[in-house]
């Protein structure tokens, strides 16, 4: 595809108007202020002319006279294919959702206005107890639809029924850092724990699946849901298979206090002592940290995924992101599940993330637009170990979104980055592309049957409710 005459958030997060960006297969191969030549022979002629100019500076400013750069409306470009009219649009890197539980979308709006323990014990756990394979498949597909609709291309997704999740993610064209979360309640031996066995199987079966779109991680659900023996065994598994770790850390004050009572150490210190941070890790939440915790996270190179909306909705607290930035820690943004969010509107999440950081620091200058956009895009990609995405840059994979900036919420435009973070809405996304493939465009889902997905997800919800 050739995005033509489009606004661009470039790799330095600068805004440039009237740009041309070309993708071939899964890569970004052209970024320029002019349309690339239509005819490859003309391109060669222009290249020769440029070489002549560099050899003879007196010719500088002359034209080769060969290349009109004219693209006929509606005609595909011979190299890039479809020419996309970028008028009134901005092309930017897609979002990486660094913490989620996709199948929980069936519990959207199901348990509201309850404290965390009652929310879990009275609503979430009984519902999850009745989940079944096809319910997880369709709920994951519905989450993929919602994600691509809001510009997310990849999610760090921790749950169970992993086979069914992988099936849905693979057909959707989306990316995932998936993990089978382990809770070791009541298990004395490793082999007695279904979750531990499945976590290892899932790594062997699916790491690198779907052309590398699926990355499998090891996952202790959290410190408070695992014994020390299991935490150490999961850390060893990650080292054995050379995979990353995804774990909930210090989400609530009571969880953090409980860990100090159990082990005389904070969750960060205790997990580090168990070896959990000896591989690249993604620590979700990190709301209740000490200065020493932040030093450990920085030293170990742990990424933190902050889940502002979920933390606010469950009144868990606010992650002190400015202090993490100050330590040089990579901070990414997560939605958590929609059971505690209640949507995957990533523009909303990004804005709330920025505002929460400012409130935590009591400083409106904290959380620059560049820092916030980095966390939503490149920071998330790095938290997932995806090195060649997260910027619109030649040679990078084409994980891109197009935002319509003609709505009243985007006018006037004093500063495009500020408008994107504080004024844009998820529904302004009009195109989502992962690995060069268009997944969502102007209300249409290219890789999934949206009506069937909604109907099946609703039917699964009713079936589970009837079993409660
Ligand atoms: Zn979570």
Structural write-up:
This protein has 468 residues and is α/β, with parallel strands linked by helices. It has a domain at 95-390: Alpha-Beta Barrel (TIM Barrel), CATH 3.20.20.140. The chain is built from 16 helices and 17 strands. The chain has helices spanning 40-55, 116-129, 133-149, 162-172, 194-206, 228-241, 253-263, 267-273, 291-300, 308-313, 321-326, 346-361, 369-376, 378-383, 416-422, 450-467, and strands at 2-9, 15-24, 27-32, 83-85, 89-93, 95-100, 152-159, 175-180, 214-217, 245-249, 281-285, 303-306, 331-333, 400-404, 429-434, 437-441, 444-445. Strands 1, 2, 3, 4, 5, 14, 15, 16 and 17 form a 9-stranded mixed sheet that branches. Strands 6-7-8-9 form a 4-stranded parallel sheet. α12 packs across α13 (369-376). The model has no long low-confidence stretch (mean pLDDT 94). Zinc ion (ZN) binds next to loops. Residues 99, 101, 248, 284, 336 line the site of zinc ion (ZN).
Short account of what is shown:
The chain is of the alpha/beta class and 468 residues long.
How much helix, percentage-wise, in residues?
Answer: 25-40%
Query: pLDDT below 50 for ≥5 consecutive residues: which ranges?
Result: none
Structural class based on helices, strands and sheet pairing: alpha/beta
- State the total count of DSSP E strands: 17
The CATH architecture of the domain at 95-390 can be named as Alpha-Beta Barrel
Radius of gyration: 24 Å
Output the CATH class name of the domain at 95-390.
Alpha Beta
User: What number is the mean pLDDT?
Assistant: 94
State the helix count.
16
CATH superfamily of the domain at 95-390: Metal-dependent hydrolases
Summarize the main sheet: 9 strands, mixed
According to CATH, the fold-level topology of the domain at 95-390 is TIM Barrel
User: End-to-end distance, in Å?
Assistant: 49 Å
How much beta, percentage-wise? 15-25%
Oligomer: single chain
Question: What does the overall shape look like?
Answer: globular
């Amino acid at each position: 595809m050739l995005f033509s005459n489009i606004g661009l958030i470039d790799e330095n997060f600068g805004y440039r108007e009237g740009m041309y960006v070309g993708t071939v297969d899964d890569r970004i191969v052209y970024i320029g202020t002019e349309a690339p030549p239509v005819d490859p022979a003309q391109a060669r002629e222009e290249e020769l002319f440029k070489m002549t100019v560099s050899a003879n500076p007196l010719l500088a400013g002359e034209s080769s006279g060969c290349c009109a750069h004219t693209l006929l409306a509606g005609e595909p470009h011979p190299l890039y294919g479809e020419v996309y009219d970028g008028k009134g649009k901005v092309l930017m890197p897609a979002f990486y959702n660094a913490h989620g539980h996709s199948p929980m979308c069936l519990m959207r709006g199901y348990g509201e206005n309850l404290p965390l323990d009652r929310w879990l014990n009275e609503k979430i756990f009984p519902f999850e107890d009745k989940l079944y394979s096809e319910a997880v498949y369709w709920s994951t597909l519905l989450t993929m639809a919602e994600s691509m609709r809001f510009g997310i291309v990849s999610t760090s997704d921790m749950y169970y029924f992993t086979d069914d999740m992988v099936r849905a993610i693979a057909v959707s064209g989306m990316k995932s850092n998936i993990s089978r979360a382990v809770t070791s309640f009541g298990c004395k031996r490793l082999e007695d724990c279904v979750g531990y066995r499945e976590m290892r199987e899932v790594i062997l079966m699916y790491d690198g699946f779907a052309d590398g779109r699926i990355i499998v991680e090891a996952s202790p659900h959290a410190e408070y849901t695992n014994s020390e023996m299991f935490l150490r065994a999961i850390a060893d598994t990650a080292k054995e298979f050379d995979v990353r770790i995804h774990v909930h850390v210090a989400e609530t004050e009571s969880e953090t206090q409980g860990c100090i009572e159990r082990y005389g150490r904070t969750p960060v210190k205790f997990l580090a002592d168990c070896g959990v941070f000896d591989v690249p890790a993604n620590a979700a939440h990190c709301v209740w940290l000490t200065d020493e915790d932040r030093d450990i996270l920085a030293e170990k190179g742990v990424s933190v995924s902050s889940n502002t909306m979920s933390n606010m909705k469950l009144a868990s607290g606010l992650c002190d992101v400015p202090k993490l930035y100050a330590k040089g820690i990579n901070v990414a943004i997560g939605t958590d599940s929609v059971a505690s969010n209640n949507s995957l509107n990533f523009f909303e999440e990004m804005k709330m993330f920025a505002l929460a950081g400012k409130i935590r620091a009591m400083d409106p200058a904290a959380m620059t637009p560049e820092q916030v956009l980095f966390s939503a895009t490149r920071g998330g990609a790095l938290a997932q170990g995806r090195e060649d995405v997260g910027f619109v840059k030649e040679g990078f994979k084409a994980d891109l979104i197009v935002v319509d900036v003609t709505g009243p919420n985007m006018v006037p435009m004093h500063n495009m980055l500020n408008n994107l973070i504080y004024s844009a809405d998820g529904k302004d996304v009009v195109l989502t592309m992962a690995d060069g493939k268009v997944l969502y465009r102007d209300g249409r889902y290219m890789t999934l049957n949206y009506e069937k997905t909604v109907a099946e997800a609703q039917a699964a919800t009713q079936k589970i409710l009837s079993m409660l």
